[in-house]
Amino acid sequence: MGSRQTSTVHGLRRENRARALWDLYLHGPGSRQRIGAGAGVSPGTVSNVVGDLMEQGLVQESGSVPSGGGRPSSIVQIDPGYAFVLGVDVGESSVLVELFDLAMQVRGRHRIPTELARLAPAEVVEQIVAGVAAVLAQSGVATDDVLGVGVGVPGLVEHSPLAVVHAQTVGWDAVPLEALLHERTALPLAVDNGAKLLGQAEHWFGAARGAADVVVVLLGHGLGTSIFTRGSGARAPMSSPGEWGHTAVVVDGQPCRCGARGCLEAYVGAGAVAARYDVLRGGPAEGSEDLETRVTELLARTDSDPASATVLAEVVRYLGAGIGNLVNVYSPSRVVLGGWLGRQVAALRMTELAGAAARNALRTPFADVELLRADLGADAVALGAATLPVGRFLSSGGQRDAVLGSRPV
Amino acid sequence: MGSRQTSTVHGLRRENRARALWDLYLHGPGSRQRIGAGAGVSPGTVSNVVGDLMEQGLVQESGSVPSGGGRPSSIVQIDPGYAFVLGVDVGESSVLVELFDLAMQVRGRHRIPTELARLAPAEVVEQIVAGVAAVLAQSGVATDDVLGVGVGVPGLVEHSPLAVVHAQTVGWDAVPLEALLHERTALPLAVDNGAKLLGQAEHWFGAARGAADVVVVLLGHGLGTSIFTRGSGARAPMSSPGEWGHTAVVVDGQPCRCGARGCLEAYVGAGAVAARYDVLRGGPAEGSEDLETRVTELLARTDSDPASATVLAEVVRYLGAGIGNLVNVYSPSRVVLGGWLGRQVAALRMTELAGAAARNALRTPFADVELLRADLGADAVALGAATLPVGRFLSSGGQRDAVLGSRPV
DNA sequence: CCACTTCTTTCAAGGCGTGAACTAAGTACA
DNA sequence: TGTACTTAGTTCACGCCTTGAAAGAAGTGG
């Protein structure tokens, strides 16, 4: 039960409040006229709705702009300090917690180094809870002013309806993360795949912004993707993640840490890069720095180190094939490459990568594709996670009590 | 402009009409009470809405059923003869036109053998138009009673906003099919990818019915797929097609007719099957029957012909890998295999196919997957195509004039 | 024949968006 | 300085919508 309940005349008002709020959130401060045009409602209704929102304190007047020989537009905006949201990035080597206001400005940050694959889920939950407490204390924001906590995790997230996480690569098998968190905090929760959330962040605020159909690829230790179809810059278009890193690009090829063979991740993931480099150099690596540092340093010397250049070329070849596949399947107008490793590859070999993708894609869908490097940096996943409670809040028309449960935006 | 315009109180009524109609269409005749429960509206409103629809003639009373010691439910249904729809399947070896009533019963059928790859698009348009005219004449249905024509084609369909078809494999390069058809008929049109429409048909009426997340694979001359996510049996859940057949499963592998290398279609498509068989037999084939007949006969003798069995085993291996990829990406609860070739493979080697898929998929998403053979037969694509105008009609709340333009359901 | 159950209809009440008229607040120009 | 014009926002009567409660309809069981 529970389709979109716009069947009642009450829900209609909520819908129009939501439309106004989404407009202000995504396009920034603006005139009532713009809101009316975007939502397709009459000026009278906009006045009425915006009046409501201002009375509630969610929206505030913020100046005015002249408008070519007529009454100037008075500009309204969402009060950035009306409420706050938390975003958590559960990464393979650290847990990052960030606090944002409604303008998505960072109000607090706390990073806990960790090694996900060696930790019990309960320990991770404690780290998250501790991080949340630390950030709130440090920023002086009251719990009551927090709309909710978004959490990005690796692996597959199943909503049934509480989020259960399957991340074979870090040894998480059906971890009921949302239930565990519920026991330790009263804040509304929203859990989803990290790659999907990175995509959401890039789509709302980064390199994927404004494109109708976009594919965002996250390349780091693992490999993930998220897809947005036929939703301009507009509200919650539709995304779809999945374990794309574990699709076969070479049937019966290299063994992958997931147990199967020929997965894309087994060719382009950070682990694969390091391992391949060791093979080319004829021996295991020296120091015991963490993987991210090793791979970053390795890629920094492609000019002088032939083995490094070879490894990078192979990554480009396979990643290009993978991107070509995505283009064939989704025919996006833009592909954005993010993640700490992806951004490095993009910086070094964007042209070659586009060429490799072109060889593997059909002419037609590939013709209009732009291949871009992600805009957002290391905290893109946390930002994306924070968009989850924000999205619920806006879609509910700005009612804080409506922000419960765990269905995705 | 033009988001979902439920902003007005008028649109609200249309929405509720649409809800009632979808309920009756997908779940069959039923009581007003069921409609109310499904749509989440009060009994009074249901009476009101259904009364409207009956006055219009779209809905009619059809008996009643007892209900445990109370007033019996009176049953209402959509009048199957209120209007009709046409579905066209533009296949690689024939153009099939079918006429359906609103209960999706076939009222007329016309098949034109053809060879798509050797025909100019304008000739195909003529065949479609001729087929439509023939079916209407033969069944005695007036043009005014036809809601529209759905057309399924191979390749990528771009809506911009009129449908343009890119089917590299049959030599269609940016064919403005919808515009061409518009010049030759006044009927409302809807063009989309054939594999997507086959999926739609299986999802509404066939083996994919009732599943929340389903992947439907079409294997014939080419290879396509369609995906339905998080929409139970309910309305227009969301599908997504694309040239899945031309994703690389072996980077730099077999050359494919699309020009790239290692495409899945180059291993499991009908052409690949025939070619591989010829290689194993050490020479080209004898007769010059069409591909479908040759491959069908070839697969009929896997018991006695080792070369045939080998070919089939290879198809299973690669198709299994492809299906494993789909499972990893979409984590469906069900995978349905259709298309003339797909149904044969499913009938012969379902168990082996599931095994091959399992080897290539992650444990978690694969655990609960059912792999099924498609229910619907040779006219599944035409049926799926016919759902397009039906879907528009229902979503508009049963207003015939609203059935124009070409955006997908 | 009466009590009870279940489904459907009727209707007053309250809420909502529209469209038109109106007010507000500027610019252009004489 | 003032008049005409332009654009933005507000007010309000009107019609439409859904709800919720109450009434009606059509059965069953005793």
TrEMBL record, chains A, B:
Pfam families: ROK (PF00480). It comes from the Bacteria. InterPro entries: ATPase_NBD (IPR043129), ROK (IPR000600), WH-like_DNA-bd_sf (IPR036388), WH_DNA-bd_sf (IPR036390). Belongs to the ROK (NagC/XylR) family. This is ROK family protein.
